[in-house]
């Protein structure tokens, strides 16, 4: 965690606050474009072939391509849901870490699209004698590299951070979000392993299976969650009980009934004496006990 603190201290001022609101606004613009002229979205997709041929705006504009649109009601519910969980993650992790999580997912997605292009040249190199074929292939393949799996990574991160939070399935059935996360993970795993993908046959000249586009898109878009789950999950996970204690502690600080700086109850170091350290409340201790990063996992719990 100490290296991350150094990066945050240096680059944290560049983090974009309320990033979920910005993402939802991008989706809203994309939906408007889709309603006015849906074909125009093909000029915004993450198409590495066109990027290398001068359309560099696609490196950013693909974020405007929204997830699949249902009716207006379900779309608004979906947008509100992702805004809500994204905003909660940002408040819990902090603006900097949430920015790193989202932008790393986007970076991996862009990188994955170019890897897919290299794989297409490797598998179907004999077909590139036709100048229009590459353009057609990547116009179709670019649709796999979308914001769908970016949104999925946000949901999986929320499920891993708040596993015991309940949501209403179909607005009726209360269910813990961790079970929904497991279901989504199984669905993604099936798509990655078992999906046959779409097949494109061009006049008998060449048959192209887009399964490798799908697999690379899934892996690259969710790589940020994989890194998060195996490295930082246990350090930033929050339970509702812990969040409640932290809220009560902040309320006491606001009223002037508690100290206003972070202090480790083991070593006595504070955020003023050691600004490079991070301080966390322990969810298993009975009370508002705060520890530095070196003693958070090694102290004896107060029961």
Could you explain how this protein is built, in words?
The chain has 303 residues and is mostly helical. It contains 13 helices and 6 strands. The two termini are 27 Å apart.
The residue fraction in helices comes out at: 55-70%
Query: What structural class do the secondary elements suggest?
Result: mainly alpha
Order of helices and strands: HHHHHHHHEEHEEHHHHEE
Intertermini distance:
27 Å
How many strands, which pairing sense, and closed or not: the largest β-sheet?
2 strands, antiparallel
Shape: globular
Low-confidence stretches: none
Overall pLDDT confidence? 77
Spatial sequence of strands, sheet with the most strands = 1-2
Characteristic key phrases:
303 residues, 56% helix, single chain, mainly alpha, two-stranded antiparallel sheet
Offer a quick outline of the entry.
Helices cover 56% and strands 7% of the residues.
């Amino acid at each position: 965690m100490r290296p991350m603190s150094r990066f945050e201290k240096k680059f944290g001022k560049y983090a974009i606050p309320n990033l979920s609101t910005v993402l939802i606004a991008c989706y809203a613009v994309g939906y408007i474009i889709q309603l006015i002229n849906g074909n125009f979205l093909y000029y915004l997709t993450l198409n590495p072939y066109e990027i290398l041929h001068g359309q560099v705006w696609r490196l950013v504009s693909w974020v405007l391509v929204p997830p699949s649109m249902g009716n207006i009601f379900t779309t608004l519910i979906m947008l509100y849901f992702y805004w809500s969980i994204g905003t909660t993650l940002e408040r819990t992790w902090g603006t900097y870490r949430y920015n790193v999580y989202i932008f790393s997912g986007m970076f991996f997605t862009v990188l994955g699209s170019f890897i897919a292009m290299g794989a297409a040249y490797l598998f179907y190199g004999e077909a590139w004698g036709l100048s229009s074929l590459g353009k057609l292939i990547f116009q179709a393949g670019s649709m796999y590299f979308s914001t769908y799996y970016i949104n999925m990574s946000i949901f999986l991160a929320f499920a891993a951070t708040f596993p015991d939070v309940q949501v209403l399935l179909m607005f009726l059935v209360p269910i813990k979000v961790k079970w929904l996360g497991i279901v989504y993970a199984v669905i993604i795993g099936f798509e990655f392993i078992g999906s046959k993908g779409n097949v494109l046959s061009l006049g008998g000249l060449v048959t192209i299976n887009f399964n490798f586009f799908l697999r690379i898109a899934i892996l690259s878009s969710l790589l940020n969650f994989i890194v998060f789950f195996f490295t930082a999950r246990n350090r930033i996970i929050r339970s509702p009980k812990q969040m409640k204690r932290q809220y009560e502690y902040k309320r006491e600080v606001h009223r002037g009934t508690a100290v206003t700086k972070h202090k480790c109850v083991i070593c006595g170091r504070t955020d003023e004496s050691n600004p490079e350290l991070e301080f966390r409340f322990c969810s298993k201790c009975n009370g508002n006990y705060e520890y530095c990063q070196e003693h958070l996992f090694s102290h004896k719990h107060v029961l």
